[in-house]
Design goal:
Structural class of chain A: mainly alpha
Number of domains of chain A: 2
Number of domains of chain B: 1
Mean pLDDT of chain B: 90
Order of helices and strands of chain A: HH
Low-confidence stretches of chain A: none
Distance between the termini of chain A: 65 Å
Radius of gyration of chain B: 23 Å
Strand content of chain A: under 5%
Distance between the termini of chain B: 54 Å
Oligomer: heterodimer
Largest sheet of chain B: none
Order of helices and strands of chain B: HHHHHHHHHHHHHHHHHHHHHHH
Shape of chain A: elongated
């Protein structure tokens, strides 16, 4: 059994070395891929037709309220502690 | 033909399962009911444990011809998918179709966390050898530490098919217990300050990289470890269906209908191998203990390597994401998020933890490939020792002969 345990240790060390080597090669490969094919932001969407001022303003207020309430609930704080100053479209 | 009421009644009675029901069968029927209870009421990996438990139930009804070794039986046909390594790779194809490798590509260093978590596999290998298992059996038991069900079944069916049933049950049971097993280990190995570390937002990755990645991984890893090709190749094919954008139907099929069908067949087949002979042995208890050891050490290995990465990057890596290197996707990542948010509710680690989580899938497949490379072509045939004496044997007798040979060898 002692021979088997030492064999198991040898297998373990060898196998971990192989795993780290394979994955290190993968890391290098991914870094090369990311460098060769960098992310480019998609072109900006054409501006939409303007809605009436009132309906657009109401929609934005609703959105702000919903976002504020969700953030507050998630972070365990009061909605009054947040103030969303700007929402911009990407 | 004369009809004798007494003789016919006797014949009917003697052909009922009750007449052949042994103590082992009754215990296995109870084990099947326990698996069904765990799956349905405790929600322990129900997609696998429910059909597995029912397969166990069917297989242990005497004279039902539903055991995996009953030639011509329904579940014997399903079991061919396990025996010939068809079903686990198909599950992996579905897993690939479901997986987003974006967080991994955004932070490729997290692949090392997936590698570090495999240390649980090799600690368990040594422990299994210490407890008396041979190297093939120990490899199949150790792979439980990879926390990957299809990989565990694939390696067990290849290297130690007689241990497939307890290994599969242990693997899937412990995967469902990840939210219970991991947090105490993570909290023990990290400080409050480390758990509060916030990581930088992940960089966006181009779609071209996401498309090329599965092809490159397949070429690089499968050339180095050809034995891993069925698993890793299918994983990457499923991912390519997802990312290419031109195979929407195949993607949808792989991530829904195909994986569901294959899961049913696989779990039933594994359940059908859970007989009294193969399951009610002291080895099963050892495997259950070793499985827990595998998971625990894998978690610890990932967290410790996470701490090393934290030190080397000057505190930019939260060590908690190291525990997600076990490939229980996405549960292990959710556990990292939960433990992190317990320390700081404004800390969002989920996407950062997904990187090592999916890296663990690749890491466990690579670990399996190493075992196949080392031991895959020298699998001991359990009845080879007396094959020359008795010639070709019936499949149903193989298990009995394997036990005799095993007893003689010990």
């Amino acid at each position: 059994m002692e021979v088997s345990i030492s064999a198991a240790f040898n297998v373990s060390i060898l196998a971990m070395a192989v795993i780290f080597t394979v994955l290190a090669i993968l890391i290098f490969t991914i870094q090369v891929l990311v460098k060769l094919m960098p992310y480019t932001a998609p072109p900006a969407a054409p501006p939409r037709r303007q809605k009436t001022a009132t309906s657009a303003s109401n929609n934005q207020d609703d959105h702000v309220a919903a976002i504020t309430a969700t953030l507050a609930m998630h972070m365990g704080k009061s909605p009054n502690e947040f103030r969303i100053t700007n929402i911009s479209q990407r | 033909m004369e009809f004798s009421f007494g003789a016919s009644a006797t014949k009917i009675i003697t052909t009922t399962g009750f007449s052949s029901l042994g103590g082992g069968d009754a215990i296995m029927l109870l084990v099947a009911c326990v698996l069904l209870y765990l799956a349905i009421w405790k929600k322990f990996e129900p997609l696998l444990l429910l059909p597995m438990g029912f397969g166990c139930l069917l297989a242990n009804v005497p004279m039902s011809m539903m055991q995996s070794t009953d030639s011509g039986g329904l579940l014997n046909f399903f079991y061919q998918g396990v025996k010939h390594e068809i079903l686990p790779p198909l599950v992996f194809m579905g897993v690939g179709a479901l997986t987003d490798f974006g967080p991994l590509l955004a932070n490729p260093a997290t692949l090392l966390l997936g590698a570090a978590a495999q240390i649980g596999v090799y600690f368990t290998l040594v422990g299994a050898v210490y407890l008396g298992f041979n190297m093939h059996e120990a490899s199949a038991i150790g792979i439980i530490g990879g926390a990957d069900g299809p990989t565990s079944i694939f390696i067990a069916s290849k290297l130690a098919p007689h241990l497939l049933a307890p290994i599969a049950v242990a693997a899937y049971s412990y995967m469902s217990l990840v939210p219970l097993i991991q947090p105490p280990i993570m909290k023990f190995l990290t400080t409050e300050k480390e758990r509060k570390i916030k990581m930088e937002q992940l960089q966006p990755i181009s779609q071209t990289v996401k498309i090329v990645f599965p092809v490159v991984v397949t070429i690089v890893c499968c050339l180095m470890l050809p034995g891993v090709t069925p698993l890793l190749g299918m994983l990457m094919l499923g991912n390519l269906f997802r990312e290419s954008g031109v195979t929407a139907r195949l993607h949808e099929t792989a991530e829904t209908h195909l994986i569901n069908i294959v899961t049913i067949l696989l779990a039933l087949a594994v359940g059908s191998s859970m007989t009294a002979d193969s399951f009610l042995r002291i080895e099963t208890l050892k495997i259950i203990v070793l499985g827990l050891l595998a998971f625990s050490i894998a978690t610890a290995g990932g967290v410790i390597f996470g701490k090393i990465m934290c030190k080397m990057t000057g505190g930019r890596v939260n060590p908690l994401i190291g525990s997600a290197g076990v490939s229980a996707v996405p549960m292990a990542a959710r556990v990292s998020q939960k433990v992190g948010s317990d320390a700081d509710s404004s800390n969002f680690l989920l996407m950062h933890a997904m990187g090592p989580n999916v890296a663990g899938v690749i890491g466990s497949a690579v670990a399996a490939g190493v075992f196949i490379s080392l031991f895959g072509d020298t699998v001991p045939e359990p009845h080879a020792a007396i094959a020359n004496v008795i010639g070709t044997v019936e499949p149903g007798a193989k298990a009995a002969i394997a036990q005799v040979v095993g007893a003689l060898q010990h």
